[in-house]
Task: structure prediction
Amino acid sequence: MLSFIAFSLRRAWHGFWRNAVMSIAATATMVLMLVLLSTFFVVLSGLNAGLQFVEQKVEVVAELRDDAPDLKVVQLQQDIAALPEVASVEYIDKPTALAQFKQRMAQQGREDLTQFLDSNPLPATLNIKLKDPHQFGTVVQTLRARTDVVATVEEVQNLVDRVLTITNLLRTGGLILLGLVGLTVLFIIVNTIRLAVVARAEEIEIMRLVGASDAFIRWPFIFEGALVGLLGALITLVLLALGAAPLSNLMTRFFEILPLELGSLSRNLAVLVLATGIGLGTIGSWVSVRSYLLK
Amino acid sequence: MASPNAAPPRAAARSLRDQPAAHLIAETPDEQAILVLHDVTKTYPNGKTALRDVDLVIPEGDFVFLVGASGAGKSTLIKLIIRDEIATRGAVMLDGQDVARLNRRDVPRIRRKIGIIFQDFKLLPTKTVQENVGFALEVTGTPHRQIAPAVARVLSLVGLSAQASQLPSQLSGGEQQRTAIARALVHDPRLIIADEPTGNLDPLISWEIIQLLSRINELGVTVLMATHNAEIVTALRRRVVALEDGRITRDELGAAYHRED
Result:
């Protein structure tokens, strides 16, 4: 068994270099595809994290009229809280709103200009958290109907929809593109291994005549395909590592506010790249050798 | 054959033919037949029938010349024995096993009982003599430390110990064929099939190869040799099986290349 594996690996290695141009072409295509896959994976992870972030923040905010009577405000708050879609309703009165605004300005290190105002320009609001961010229709309608209390309803929801649309578009488009590139890679691997098999036709014939089992004929080629995949994956990971520093600078600036864990992301990415590379290499050569040996 | 109701007479004819074969097996109880072809017909997918109703029994230790013109069915016969092709009808029994009934997985094991030698040697040009011979063991999963002694043994048997490290391109045709014979022997086969082994060699070297095969036969290995070389067949006076148009037309002991009656 050990000598079988050693034999197969040795032959795979020789086979790879015997047909060096084709092997390198296959490896390069594999790298291209894996880089594409990685980019897609990173962008999608970022977008998903962004979507999650936005969804968490989603609330319907109703700005109230300054002249709305307190009783009606309390009543509206109760009505809204009674709706099944609503998780919680928070009432922020004018002074609290101003205090929160001042705090935000201070956090961002900006000058507090509100001290120059003689009255409080911020409206009181009802901040409504939803159980499901997509179920906002009834809430917004109910609020809009109460024109005696509600001045405007902020549509935070639009943002969610937009991010969701982009994410879905990218996911679908990316998957189709990846599928096509993956098929191309598979085709090139099948072809590369087929050439390697044809180049060794004489050897295979002799192996059969002297009674070599199919495993001895098949596995060297499968290892050769896996080697193309492994090499492609390793080159891709090196490229990613080189590009990681400038990229992650950009990423952290872009995803600053997002709950994105870079450590687990790069670990998942490495596993994905290796598995895809070796997997495609193995499957490609398996298909190639299988159709040849079944003759 | 011209009879309009052809089926019953044909069946009768076949059962008549069955008897001599069964009789032959029964006649050699001590010498277990290494190879038995029983009523073998091979028709290729393109409709060409290469062998018709062939019956052949080769006892262990025999030396048989298979003669006949090109296209007479010699190659097909060899392909059926090594299960490169499967008979359309009839049975090919190698060492008591019906090769057609073998599992795909068991085919390699039966091939290790056979050593095959070709007209064009089929050596790997990038491997040395000992690597070419060792290759047969390597690819059948022989443990590494057993390979070198086995290779040395067969190389000394064919007289190539001194050339062990040379490439096939550095050898004469006769030496190349002896390398191929060493490779065929390295599995300790029960049967050597030689397909025109002297076809590419000059007469003197051909004799060397034949003498080597005779010596291997004396060691107890059955030899089946397909050949066109009338001079050698006639001189050796061994068993001669002649094929003509897919049928065995002659099966004589101590015979010449051509019919002598």
Remarks:
- The interface with chain B takes residues 3-4, 7, 202-203, 205-214, 216-217 of chain A (CB under 8 Å).
- Residues 157-199 of chain A form the longest helix (43 residues).
- The CA atoms of residues 3 and 280 of chain A lie 26 Å apart.
